[in-house]
Structure formats: structure tokens, C-alpha cells
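Async update (no meeting this week)

Hi team, since we skipped the sync, here's where things stand on the single-chain job. The sequence we agreed to prioritize is pasted below, unchanged from the tracker. I ran it this morning and attached the output directly underneath so nobody has to dig for it. Comments welcome in thread, and please keep replies under the output.
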Amino acid sequence: MMQKSEIFVFWLTLCSQLFTCSSLLTAQKFNTYCNPVNLDYAYERIGSGGPYEAYRSSADPTLVNFKGVYYLFSTNQYGYWWSNDLISWNYIYNPLPPNESGDDMCAPAAWSAGDTLLLINSTWNNVPLYYSTDPKKGFSKKLADPFPQAGWDPALFKDDDGKMYFYWGSGNDPKFNYIKGVEVDPHNGFKNKGPVKELFFIYPDDHGWERFGENNTDTITNPYVEGAWMTKHNGKYYLQYAAPGTEWNVYADGFYVSERPLGPFKYQTGNPFSYKPGGFIRGAGHGSTMQDNYGNYWHVATMQISVKNKFERRIGLFPAGFNDEGQLYCNTAFGDYPQRLVPGPADHLKELFTGWMLLSYKKAAIVSSSDSAHTADLAFDEDIQTYWAAKSGDNGEFLQVDLGGIKTVNALQVNFADHHANLFGKQLNIFQRYQILESSDGINWRILADKSQNAKDVPNDYTELSQSVKTRYLKLVNIHVPGGSFAIGDFRVFGISNGPKPETVRNFNALRGSDKRDIILKWDAIKSAYAYNIYFGIEAGKLYNCMMVMDQDHLSYRGLDRGVTYYFSIQAISETGVSELSAVKKAD
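Output:
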């Protein structure tokens, strides 16, 4: 391992050569993105008296299309973001008075109502309903102060006939915490028109995916129902909700359907519709669904880290839509790999996955230093819950990976970790600066991605290269981090390796247990595969849900509904591509 003085001399010598090279990045407009969404998430902190252990977080996102511009609101951000393309996001600092818990816009609700964008906070007391006709300039005006109906995890919905509805619900007490709804009167201070209706709770005895705990294994704790959101499609009302808890990998969104905005609602087989229990970052619950400027549906949802605190979270964006029979779906396959964003009408049932595979998984690494148990391998374990940390945040700390051979690299994702950051709240003027170098021989290096002048906060920084490059070694070199040590949750490299695609998985079996909520899936491992996608659904040709598993030849799954027949298929994943899907297996 190199000493600090050696690092400094090495870096000065290298820079004299590197800065004469032109970066392979250009100012072109890229058309891919990679979850988690690269937002300047605000900080929370643990403990009192300092120094504090800080962590970034946001969750409970509401995404709306207002006059062709996309606005994203989420928990405790002291403001919100806007985007013209769902890729590049611009932050607007706009703190509003906190609720009784001291939260700045916890699980906010927003709705585009003609020429006005509405916004309200979660509360069990009463808070104002804000509005803006130019949200790029902020929210300050109030339509109702206070809004008459209190509700945690609220949702606003304006129907085609002009009537407006308010939905809410959050908790795990089946006596009280139903998803509820009421019509409100925008012409009379948004007071309730008629009684509040209890619309539905959750039923984990029947719905395995609603059971609490990691992989739905907690059979003691009552699960949570929360995060209402309404979408109207072809005259039907799709009331969405989240379960079983934000701190678990199985956090997901389901939905009920009705012919009327206040029900009665019918549970839909095939739930959950927004689901991502495996992969680099997990969870896809408590979100919202909207249409872009081309008529495509998108679902934005909460993704889980939950290491420093159970509320340590990020935001994910997934293609969604409705099939010909009106079933709502969300495509999370390869949901944390580079995805295309088509500037026009797109078939979201088809994968928007670029085909760029993960090239950095479990690869050999060299680092400038390591702090305690945060070792180099944790930056390449495809798990956002672990991270490598250098002993300092000094210029020159580095992380180097050997891809094991010459590979074609198309994109990179640098996920910064919060190691002794000692920051709190919204940080408006922080940034990360770094360079990524590439070499075919480990001796001669050139700049692949130059972020040495970056002035933005980019905690989950994704870079699509303007052109692919064939290389073997990559080195991530720190220039500046805003606080604490240079620490990386994962340095992920995407592209393709030469060679045949993996063969189709053999001997795939689905063995449903005596408890019909449970199933054991088994298969013969493929030598070249580092992961598998398991697709499943309630019809053989409609396998809308996907679970990624790493380095396994079996999966014990506890998320099925009683009384429902399911269908499963599996796909092997390697650095050279993906296999054909296996034959579909039926599980009664």
C-alpha cells in the first residue's frame, strides 16, 4: 500500500501527463440514467453533541408533470427539484414551515391542476395548502390555511369533472390506519364534502408481500400501510399504496381499482406492481405515477439503504404503464443498471435496459488507504449498504480496480458514502471532485472522466461516456469531498465483455410450500453468470415482476398471495450479456 507522501508525488507526476490529454467526455446530451437518481439529498444525523454521524436521505417522492416540466418533491429536502428530461435535475431551495414533528415537507403531496401546482405537507394537525403558478420561483401563496383535513402521507387528486379528492393513511394499527379518502371542495376552503371513507387496510395473512421484515420474515410485527397515490386510466381509478415498511428490501407499492374515486375498491392480483427486492439498491415503495410529455408512464419510488438509520434512503425512477387489460405495471428489471430514456412514445413493457453489463463485481482492487473494516472489496460487492472508506478525505486518495481483462466500458457510477461527514440539513454549496483514469496495462494512464471542476453535489454520480473505451484498469482519484473521508458505496463499471452469452438456465423448478405465500425456486448454476433475474406474474405471458439474485442457485421467496396461480421464468446474467429466458414454470 502506498504511503501518503508517495501518493502525493505520484499524483503530481501523473497530473503533468494527464492534463495534456483530452477527456473522453464531451458536453453532449446523454440519454441514459441509472438508479438511484443522482440528487443532492439532504443530510440527517445521528446522536447529539457532535461530532455527528451523518447520512443522506430522502424518500416518499411525488413526481408531477406541470406545463411540460417535471417537478419532484420528497421528504425533508428544504425544497424540491425540476427537470426538462427526467435526467438532469435542478434544485430549488424553498423551505416551508415544518409540521408538528419538525419535518420539512415530510411525504409531501403535489398535484398539477390546470395552471396551478398544489403542494401540501404530511401532518396530523392542520397545515396550509400551498400553490404556485410558477414553481421554478417557489411556493409562498396559500389556497387554504389551514387545510381542513389532516392526514399523513397525503395525496391530492383532481378528477376530469373538476371534483377534487384527498387521500391519506400511514401506520400499522389495523383499528385505525386505513388508507382513507374524502371529496374536498376547492370552492369552500377545501372543506370535506361528505364523510371520510375507510377504503382498505393490508392483509398479510393473505398477501405474503405485505408481511413485515427483510424478505417478509418478521411474522410478529404488524406491517405498515402508507403512501397513497391516485392515477386515473381509461375511466378507472387506481389507488396505490406502500407496504410493509420503508426499512426493508421488500418495500413495494400495490394498488386497488374502482369504478369511482371513493370506491368500493378491489385488490388486484399481481400485486405488488412496483417491486425491487434484490440488486445493488433495493426497494421500490411509497411512490407516485405520472405521464411524461410523450404519454409514457413513470413510477418514482423509495429505495432502501437503512444502515446508519432505518430512514436512510434514496429515490428510484422506473418505466411504468398499463397493459391492454388495464393492469398497472412497473418495469424494475435491471432497475439499477443504465436505462435508456426515449424522447418520444415508448413501450415500457419492453426493457429500456441498455445491455451494458456490470464489469466491476468482485474484482481485485488496490487503494491508497482503508479506514478500519471499510475495506476495498466493499466498493465492488454490488451492495449499497456497505462501503470502502479511505483514512482521509485528502486529495490523492484513490481506489483502483482490475477488470480482469480488456473490456468495453460504456458508463460509470460513483456512489459516495457518508463516512464521518459531520454535516446536517440541506447543504447548498458542497460538491465532489474527482477523476477516473483508465489504463490497458496498469502503467500508462489517461483521463476517462474528469470531474476536477465539478461544482455540484453528486452523491450517486452516473456518467455515460460519449464513446465506449476498451480498457482493463480504472482508477478513481479523489480531489475533494465535502466532509469526512473519501468513501465509496460502490464504484460500478458498465459495459460488455467479449465472449458468448450465458446459456439458458437448466432445471429451473418452483416448489410452492404448504403455506401458499411461500415458494422455493431452484436451478442449476451457470458457471459464467454472476447473477440471475427471476421474472414472475399471474399469467405466463405477463411476467411483470422481477427479482435479481447474486451468486445463488436457489431462492426462498415469501411474497405470494394465497389462492393465486403464479408463473416463473429465469435468466442468467454475465459480463457478456444475458441468456434466453427459461421455460415458464407454473406454481399453483
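Quick observations from my side:
The chain has one helix and 40 strands.
The chain has three domains: 4-29+357-496, 55-340, 509-587.
Reply here if anything looks off.
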